[in-house]
Design brief:
The complex is a heterodimer of chains A (332) and B (308). Chain A is mostly helical and 332 residues long. In chain A, 75% of the residues lie in helices and 2% in strands. Helices cover 77% and strands 4% of the residues of chain B. The chains are: A mainly alpha (332), B mainly alpha (308).
Chain lengths: 332, 308
């Protein structure tokens, strides 16, 4: 029997529950538009997915947007060519959307696994650059083959037919389940032996290997898991947008993911969660007030944070002391 | 048109583009090889030069052959700014640069790239910007047999060769260049024999970004107009070329650039036979990234680099 009280004393767990409840309440009470909620879940979700490999294992995957692209396209192609499936999407409160997204995410996970076997041998900057290469390779392949598969697609763009579009409410449910899954997976992984192994890898991979951490297996698993969730979110987001185009492969999504993690703090669950909420609010308000400069301002924030607070906002908070007690001991 | 002529034309064009790519990568190999700064703002540094040259020509009528020196100068200034604002706190010490510091520089330069990219988008409204029909000499095309080659492409190739030769001689022969190579090999040992590694690191950043901005002029000669997103085309290719040529090797980068250009030309012909003309260009670029991953896996020190 799980001790409920014990869980409530853990701030990360409480925060996850709070976020989930807040979004559900905002939906039920119609405090925000469904589109807005779907977008915020997408943003937080992709940051938390990348966190599995970047935050825990310390492998900065710069081409992570490739999985948004792959799964987005797989989802769109499945729906486009299977009319019966497309018509089913709108039934059962969005569960079919969720299931098809699992297939699409599975393809991403498979790609991540196959690519990860060789590429995860690389360390640091070389891994980052190899993943950028992977992103561009996938982008150019999609650009080349989508027009060949079906000349009706305009360039590499797939616009979903009207019968394949789902009600926002159903998309919301599918997104919500995926989002909850991502958060819970993050929490579970962080507390498990697997997560400890990943953290050991990020501290010193050779030492971890020497101490018996199956580094190869752990890295692959984390990379595939991360790709799986990124892919699922990308697939559902593509459906919400009514179609996919090559912008899904745009490094701008990587910018979002990495900036969110860096703002919050690398290596924790709470960091990316807090970071992505702050990032999204900043992004949204700055987009309204300074549409041209919002990314310039966010970029400057990241530059300052990397220089003066490499552990992010959570790192600052943890380092503070209240009445002689370190805050770190209080919140953990 | 027979297959042979098509191959000849594509390979010639590919090799000419390769010289530009080679020159573009030289700056990156310096900054990355000497002090492990993964310059993700490389594409944006290139664009600075392209924009300076085009703005000078469009609004002040300055000849690009003069404008390229202004581009070089502005690149040197950008390098100085980036070093003192962004890099000094991370790499301005004598100690060996470990993986953690390397990742910090990567994130820091990533932030710089976001800032510069969005400034460019703001000032140009993401519209194409360029030198238009400007070209050196009386004609814009030279006909050689079946082929007609743009004069600008030949100018770019010649300038890239000259500039790379100069910077190669600088690194190989001058005392400053020797100090740079000493810091690249071992900054602590360099400090012991009286070289100030911090000063050398600053110099390297300045030279690297300055040369990169200069190579932006070659890019605009080749492309004739640029949009901000061209940074996303050249920067990943530059990373590929630097890895292929070997970190820190100037000649290696230049030769690797020409190799990538040649492979691009050949694979373009092959893919246009296999899957049709429209799909050939993106697939030919894919080849470059396949080469990147293969190099990283099987020959991580690159063609001309030292064993790590």
């Amino acid at each position: 029997m799980v001790n409920v009280k014990e869980y409530l004393e853990r701030p990360t767990f409480v925060l996850i529950i709070l976020v989930l409840v807040a979004i559900a309440l905002a939906k039920l009470l119609r405090l925000e538009t469904t589109d807005y909620l779907i977008t915020i879940m997408f943003f937080i979700g992709i940051a938390m997915s990348l966190n599995l490999i970047m935050g825990f294992a310390g492998y900065v995957s710069f081409g992570h947007t490739v999985f948004l692209g792959i799964s987005g396209y797989i989802f769109a192609l499945i729906v486009y060519y299977n009319v019966w499936l497309a018509e089913m999407l709108d039934t059962l409160f969005g569960i079919p959307i969720f299931l098809v997204a699992i297939v699409a995410g599975g393809v991403s996970a498979l790609v991540a696994f196959l690519v990860g076997v060789p590429v995860l041998k690389l360390r640091g900057a070389f891994f980052a650059i190899a993943t950028i290469g992977l992103d561009f390779a996938a982008l150019y392949i999609v650009k080349a083959f989508i027009p060949i598969i079906n000349p009706e697609f305009f360039g590499a763009q797939i616009i979903l037919p009207a019968y394949a579009l789902a009600y926002k409410n159903n998309v919301f449910v599918a997104m919500y389940i995926t989002f909850a899954l991502v958060l819970i997976t993050n929490y579970v992984v962080r507390r498990s032996r697997f997560g400890m192994g990943l953290l050991a890898i990020s501290e010193d991979e050779d030492a971890a290997e020497a101490l018996g951490v199956p580094t190869r297996k752990y890295k692959l698993l984390a990379f595939a898991l991360s790709a799986f969730f990124t892919g699922m979110l990308g697939a559902i987001f593509g459906l919400n947008a009514g179609g996919v185009d090559e912008n899904l492969f745009n490094l701008a999504h990587t910018i979002d993911m990495i900036v969110m993690i860096v703002i919050g703090g690398i290596g924790t669950v709470m960091g990316p969660l807090v970071g992505s909420i702050i990032y999204f609010i900043l992004y949204d308000t700055l987009l309204v007030t300074y549409p041209e400069f919002n990314l310039v301002i966010l970029g400057s924030i990241v530059a300052v944070l990397v220089l003066f607070a490499p552990r992010g906002i959570i790192g600052i908070i943890r380092g503070k002391t209240i009445r002689g007690k370190r805050l770190r001991d209080i919140i953990e | 048109m027979t297959l042979m002529t098509e191959l000849l034309i594509n390979v010639t064009n590919g090799l000419l583009w390769g010289t530009v790519l080679g020159a573009v990568s030289v700056g990156l190999t310096l900054i990355w090889g000497v002090m492990k700064v993964v310059n993700l703002a490389h594409g944006e540094s290139i664009l600075l030069g392209s924009y300076i040259v085009s703005v000078l020509l469009l609004f002040m009528g300055v000849d690009p052959m003069v404008g390229m020196f202004v581009a070089l100068g502005s690149g040197l200034l950008l390098g100085l700014t980036i070093y003192w604002l962004n890099l000094h706190k991370i790499i301005g010490h004598v100690d060996v640069i470990n993986l953690r510091i390397e990742m910090s520089t990567l994130l820091e330069m990533f932030a710089v790239s976001i800032i510069l990219y969005n400034l460019y988008s703001f000032f140009t409204r993401s519209e194409p910007f360029g030198i238009g029909i400007w070209h050196l000499g009386p004609t814009s095309y030279i006909n050689i047999g079946y082929m007609s080659v743009q004069v600008n492409h030949i100018t770019a190739a010649a300038l890239s060769l000259g500039a790379t030769f100069i910077i190669y001689q600088f690194i190989a022969k001058t005392p400053t260049g020797k100090a740079i190579r000493a810091v690249m090999q071992d900054s602590q040992a360099a400090a012991l024999v009286g070289i100030d590694p911090v000063k050398i690191k600053m110099l390297t950043t300045v030279i690297s970004i300055g040369f990169t901005a200069f190579s932006g002029f070659l890019v605009i000669l080749y492309e004739s107009a640029v949009v901000p997103s061209i940074a996303y085309k050249y920067a990943p290719l530059a990373f590929t070329i630097v890895v292929l040529g070997g970190l820190g090797s100037i000649m290696g980068s230049y030769i690797a650039g020409i190799i990538i250009g040649g492979i691009y030309g050949v694979s373009k012909v092959i893919f246009s036979l296999l899957v049709g003309k429209n799909a050939s260009d993106p697939l030919a670029l894919t080849t470059a990234f396949v080469i990147l991953v293969l190099t990283l896996l099987f020959k991580p020190e690159g063609l001309f680099g030292r064993k790590r």
